[in-house]
Design a protein that fits this description.
Beta-Lactamase; alpha+beta; six-stranded antiparallel sheet; Rev_trsase/Diguanyl_cyclase; GAF; EAL domain-containing protein; EAL_sf
Length: 777
């Protein structure tokens, strides 16, 4: 029994729509009948009506057919008949799908039609793959409704199928594009992306086989990228093909940078040298499109092969252009990822592996050598006086020097070894699998040092650069990467201490010294917090008047275990670690506070002299910091004198002069300490806003017996007087030195001849004594 669907809301809507469509068909039928009546005034007979109906349905491009309840064709239009391989309607009437198609496909059709007949419910818009392909992948949208007789009994089905292949192809293309773009975004491997892209194009263009070739970095050859449907032997044959003006379709397209369409390989001259290679595979046409970057640089080619002669139609050209565009995006994305990965693991300037890559790989290298009876040698090296090249020739010359040095090191080691740039002018060498013989290891390393030190031409100048190298061997001098690096680093600093341009192998003594240095550094840090520092003050006396006019503040350390520690024992370490900055601030503040206290106690006018370290002087806004300390302690600026060493000033003459002028503007006096040891030029000296030169004790120690020191000291005094500067000599210890200095025109002296450094109370007591006689012994 047929099911009544009139109460089913879904089918009521369909019937409503159907009724509207029916009315439109009736109206059209009435108009057609009127036109027929006008042409044929007499009433047409049944035969004419049958002819007209058959003519109408045969002009419809869709499949239209009717079947009985057993699935036998009752009627079908000409498209249905022809696509099932028959000639006329009479040939299909009475047949079932089992007579026309494979059993599995016929059964699927029969099951759907049986459901329509049994339920009485129509089925609309079924999307199904066409059984008859016509040489291409086809899709149909099918609707099937019950066929009823005049009494309403279901006697079969009526079916209509429309070809929607173009729409399905467009949908598949959109889905494929989305999937390919997702693969690009997710960074999928290029070969997987190319494979899916080619399979998509092949599905949309039946009979076509695709291939992607990638251009070599030097732009001369094409290498296999992907070709899932091509014979592997053919792919291997064209792998590495050279590009050129007559190199088949792909080689020529890459050469020209434009699409090359070869419609017939057998006659096209571009294939003259490759025709015999391709014909065994049955290819007759090949269409190759260059894959471009955004800057129109050729990255590779996308080729389509066909076994028939021909050229792509407009739709196929659009597919080819789309595929080539997506391939270009994918290749550029992969190249960008490769560049990012390279930059993350390599030094941008030299191209050497960086510290990150070294640490990733070195552990594996050491593990491979463990128990092998061989050594891995880790060398930490630093170029000597590299800063001088940068400062004198500029950073471009410095960069070129680093690149040449890196190239020389790379050429001096084996492929299994590593050369790493740590940063600046520091490098790491890892030599793998060397014999456990010290002489062989040292000989290899000295060969590398000699290669580095060979003359090189930088910006038209011949330069030589040496290096200081520290060495540690695995497993004897370190069993982990961290131990080897630390020990090689210690050895390198030992090489620098010994005058640079040498190689030092790590020893336990170095480790002991390093540990001691680390301990001293921590003690020094704690000394500031525990207030273990104190000041002593050494008087400075005017030679003409015999009056003490100034005191130099000298830092001392009262160590809880070692007692009073000389500045020479800890100031270099403070400079190296940067602790000199907070320590120097403490000294400046304490000295200013003491000077203000003496002033408040009514002592004679006094200048307090404080030494300044290079690290302090380079601090940002240091002059403002000095002004803040003066305000905090209440000391008048003109009662403070800052002693700057020549070497400090000469590190950055323009910057030093600018800071000195800022200090002078505050009202602070400036002096050059240890004059004669820092190689300052006279042109620079005359620009320094200083009031006093301090002759280094190394010149004073042997006067008046050493004629050279006499001449140098007299020259410094004469120079200072000509520049309008006062001169003070330090390290004065005897009357003979005093007399020479006074006769040479020296203004002031400082040293044991007059007084050792004193505590604050002792200095105050000294200031209250009668005037000192410069003629005393």
């Amino acid at each position: 029994m047929a099911k009544n669907t009139s109460r089913n809301p879904r089918y009521a809507a369909l019937n409503a729509g159907g009724n509207a469509e029916t009315r439109r068909l009736i109206d059209a039928s009435n108009r057609l009948a009127e036109e027929v009546a006008r042409i044929f005034p007499s009433e047409p007979d049944i035969a004419d009506r049958h002819y007209w109906l058959e003519t109408i349905i045969n002009h419809v491009p869709d499949y239209i057919y009717a079947k009985d309840v057993e699935g036998r064709f009752l009627i079908a239009n000409q498209v249905t008949v022809a696509d099932n391989g028959l000639e006329a309607m009479k040939d299909i009437v009475g047949k079932t799908d089992f007579d026309l198609h494979p059993p599995q496909m016929a059964k699927a059709i029969a099951d759907i039609e049986r459901r329509v007949i049994e339920t009485g419910e129509p089925i609309f818009g079924i999307e199904e793959r066409a059984i008859v392909s016509k040489g291409r992948d086809r899709w149909l949208m099918t609707s099937k409704v019950p066929l009823r007789n005049k009494s309403g009994k279901i006697v079969g089905i009526v079916g209509v199928s429309r070809d929607i292949s173009d729409r399905k192809a467009a949908e598949r293309l959109l889905e494929g594009q989305a999937r390919l773009l997702e693969m690009i975004a997710n960074g999928r491997p290029l070969d997987a992306f190319f494979r899916d892209m080619i399979l998509l194009i092949e599905a949309l263009m039946p009979g076509i086989k695709g291939s992607v070739l990638l251009l070599s970095p030097d732009g001369r050859y094409l290498f296999h990228g992907a070709a899932p449907s091509l014979d592997e032997a053919y792919c291997a044959t064209i792998h590495g093909v050279e590009i050129g003006p007559r190199m088949g379709s792909c080689g020529t397209a890459a050469w020209r940078g434009e699409q090359v369409i070869v419609s017939d390989i057998q006659v096209d001259p571009l294939w003259d040298d490759y025709r015999e290679l391709v014909l065994p595979y049955g290819f007759r046409s090949c269409w190759s499109t260059p894959i471009h970057s955004r800057e129109r640089k050729v990255l590779g080619t996308f080729a389509l092969y066909s076994d028939v002669v021909g050229v792509p139609d407009d739709g196929q050209k659009e597919l080819i252009a789309m595929a080539a565009h997506l391939a270009g995006i994918a290749i550029e994305r992969k190249q960008a990822e490769d560049r990012i990965s390279f930059m993350a693991h390599h030094d941008a300037l030299t191209g050497l592996p960086n510290r990150a890559q070294f640490e990733e790989q070195v552990a594996e290298a050491l593990e491979a050598l463990r128990g092998s009876g061989q050594w891995a040698v880790l060398a930490f090296l630093d170029l000597d006086n590299f800063k001088l090249v940068n400062d004198t020739l500029g950073h471009a010359a410095g960069d070129e020097l680093l690149k040449v040095t890196a190239s020389r090191m790379r050429a001096s080691v084996r492929k299994s070894d590593m050369v790493v740039r740590v940063g600046g002018d520091e490098f790491i060498l890892l030599l793998n699998g060397l014999p456990c013989e010290r002489d062989i290891v040292l000989a290899r390393l000295e060969d590398i040092r000699r290669a580095i030190a060979a003359p090189m031409q930088i910006e038209g100048r011949s330069l030589q650069v040496t290096c200081s190298m520290g060495v540690a061997c695995f497993p004897n001098q370190g069993k982990t990467v961290g131990e080897l690096l630390a020990n090689a680093d210690m050895a390198m600093y030992r090489a620098k201490e010994l005058g640079r341009n040498n190689l030092q192998v790590f020893t336990e003594e170095m480790a002991a010294k390093a540990h001691e240095k680390l301990k001293q550094q921590e003690e020094l840090r704690q000394a500031l917090a525990r207030q273990e520092f104190f000041l002593q003050f050494q008087p400075q006396m005017n030679l003409a008047t015999g009056r003490v006019f100034a005191a130099e503040a000298l830092l001392r350390w009262r160590h809880p275990e070692r007692g009073t520690v000389s500045p020479a024992a800890f100031i270099p370490l403070a400079e190296e670690t940067g602790l000199i900055v907070p320590i120097g601030d403490w000294v400046l503040r304490a000295a200013c506070r003491q000077a203000r206290a003496w002033q408040d106690e009514g002592l004679p006018p006094l200048i307090i002299s404080v030494n300044v370290s290079a690290r302090q002087f380079r601090e940002r806004n240091w002059a403002a910091h000095v002004a803040a300390i003066l305000t905090e302690t209440g000391l008048d600026p003109f009662r403070l004198e800052l002693e700057l060493t020549e070497s400090l000033i000469m590190q950055d003459v323009p910057g030093a002069i600018a800071t000195m002028h800022e200090l002078q503007a505050i009202g602070v006096h400036l002096a050059i300490d240890d004059f004669g040891t820092g190689y300052s030029s006279l042109s620079a000296l005359k620009r320094f806003p200083v009031r006093r030169l301090k002759i280094d004790r190394s010149f004073v120690a042997d006067i008046p017996t050493d004629l050279d020191d006499n001449a140098i000291t007299a020259a410094i005094i004469s120079l200072a007087r000509n520049l309008g500067l006062r001169v003070i000599a330090e390290g004065v210890e005897n009357q003979a030195q005093v007399e020479f200095l006074r006769q040479s025109g020296c203004d002031e002296i400082q040293g044991y001849f007059f007084s050792r450094p004193l505590s604050a109370p002792d200095f105050e007591a000294l200031m209250l004594q009668p005037r000192f006689s410069i003629h005393s012994v």
